[in-house]
Q: What sequence folds into this?
C-alpha cells in the first residue's frame, strides 16, 4: 500500500529544474484568438470573418472562403466535386444555385448525385430519423439515408422517366450510329425536367458539364442494366468523358478544386489536373482522415506528392460534415463576392 510521504528539498529542487520553462518568443503581431462578439448588433459579414480568429476548424472554414474568393477573383476554372449524399440532402439546392449563377465551371459527381437530383424533381425526400428501425422501414417500402427517408414510389416514377429517356437515346444511337457519352447523357437528361432547384436542369440550361464516370452505379445502373437486356447494342462512351475533363483542365489558365467528400469525384478532378502540373487552388471538405490511406481521407499534401495539386497552391482541408459548413462557405465565398461585384 502506497502511503503519503514527504518529499526532500533536493527532490523538490530537481523537479523545479525539470519543469523550468525557457523564455520564448512573445509572438507579438500574431492574430489574437477571439470569437464573434454577440453583444453588438449582429453583422453576418463580421460573423463569418470572425471564424478566422476562432481557431480549430472555424479557421479552416474562413481559409476556405478566402481561397475560393481568390479562385473567383483570378477567374480560375472551378471544378466542384461532390458525392451523392449532397444531392440527398439540402445541399443539392445550394449547388443548383451556384450552377444557375454560373459560379462554378465543371461539376463532377457520382450516379447518385444525378439520379437523386432528378428524383427530387418528381417527388421530394422527407425528414426522418437516424433511429428508425431498418426492418420496419423496409416493410413499409421506405429507404433511409441518414435521417432522410426516400419512399420506393420515388424510384418507381424515376424508372418510368428514365426508361422513356433511354428509348430516345437508343433511337438516336440507331439513327445516327453515334454512341452517347456520359456528359451528353446527363445534359439530355436535364432537358427532361423543369425544376429551378435541380442541378441537372440548371447545368443543361447554362451549358455546364456534369462529369459522372460512375454513371452505371445505383438505381441508374439498375435501370440501364435491364434496358440493355432488351437492347444488346446500347452503349454509353465513358472514355470520351475522361477526355472532356482532362481537356478542360489542360485548357484552363488556372484551376481550382472544391471537393466535398471523397470518392471518384475528388480523384477524377485531381487526376485531370495532374496533366497540367497540378491545380492552383484546392479546398477539401470531409470528415475522413488519412490514417487508412483512403481517397476520401487523403490530405492535400498527398495530392501534391502525385503532382495533382501544385506545391505552391493555396489550399486547405476542412474537417467537418459538409451539410454544416458548405452553406457557410457559399455564403462567405460566393454571396459576398456577388454582392461586391
A:
Amino acid at each position: 500500500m502506497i502511503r503519503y510521504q514527504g518529499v526532500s528539498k533536493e527532490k523538490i529542487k530537481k523537479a523545479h529544474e525539470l519543469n523550468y520553462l525557457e523564455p520564448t518568443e512573445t509572438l507579438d503581431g500574431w492574430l489574437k484568438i477571439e470569437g464573434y462578439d454577440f453583444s453588438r448588433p449582429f453583422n453576418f459579414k463580421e460573423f463569418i470573418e470572425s471564424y478566422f480568429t476562432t481557431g480549430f476548424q472555424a479557421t479552416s472554414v474562413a481559409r476556405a472562403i478566402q481561397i475560393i474568393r481568390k479562385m473567383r477573383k483570378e477567374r480560375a476554372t472551378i471544378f466542384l466535386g461532390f458525392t451523392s449524399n449532397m444531392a440527398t440532402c439540402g445541399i443539392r439546392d445550394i449547388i443548383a444555385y451556384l450552377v444557375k449563377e454560373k459560379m462554378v465551371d465543371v461539376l463532377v459527381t457520382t450516379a447518385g448525385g444525378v439520379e437523386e437530383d432528378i428524383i427530387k424533381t418528381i417527388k421530394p425526400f422527407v425528414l426522418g430519423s437516424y433511429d428508425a428501425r431498418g426492418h420496419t422501414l423496409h416493410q413499409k417500402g421506405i429507404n433511409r439515408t441518414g435521417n432522410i427517408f426516400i419512399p420506393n414510389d420515388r424510384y418507381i416514377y424515376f424508372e418510368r422517366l428514365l426508361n422513356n429517356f433511354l428509348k430516345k437515346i437508343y433511337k438516336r444511337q440507331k439513327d445516327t450510329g453515334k454512341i452517347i457519352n456520359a456528359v451528353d447523357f446527363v445534359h439530355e437528361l436535364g432537358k427532361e425536367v423543369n425544376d429551378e432547384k435541380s442541378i441537372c436542369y440548371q447545368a443543361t440550361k447554362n451549358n455546364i458539364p456534369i462529369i459522372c464516370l460512375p454513371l452505371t452505379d445505383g438505381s441508374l445502373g439498375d435501370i440501364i442494366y435491364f434496358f440493355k437486356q432488351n437492347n444488346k447494342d446500347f452503349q454509353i462512351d465513358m472514355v470520351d468523358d475522361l477526355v472532356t475533363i482532362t481537356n478542360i483542365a489542360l485548357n484552363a489558365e488556372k484551376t481550382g478544386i472544391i471537393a466535398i467528400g471523397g470518392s471518384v469525384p475528388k480523384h477524377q478532378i485531381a487526376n485531370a489536373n495532374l496533366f497540367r502540373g497540378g491545380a492552383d487552388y484546392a479546398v477539401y471538405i470531409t470528415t475522413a482522415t488519412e490514417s487508412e490511406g483512403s481517397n476520401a481521407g487523403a490530405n492535400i499534401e498527398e495530392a501534391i506528392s502525385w503532382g495533382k495539386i501544385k506545391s505552391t497552391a493555396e489550399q486547405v482541408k476542412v474537417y467537418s460534415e459538409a451539410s454544416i459548413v458548405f452553406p457557410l462557405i457559399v455564403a462567405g465565398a460566393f454571396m459576398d463576392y456577388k454582392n461586391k461585384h
Summary: The chain is about 50% helix and 15% strand.
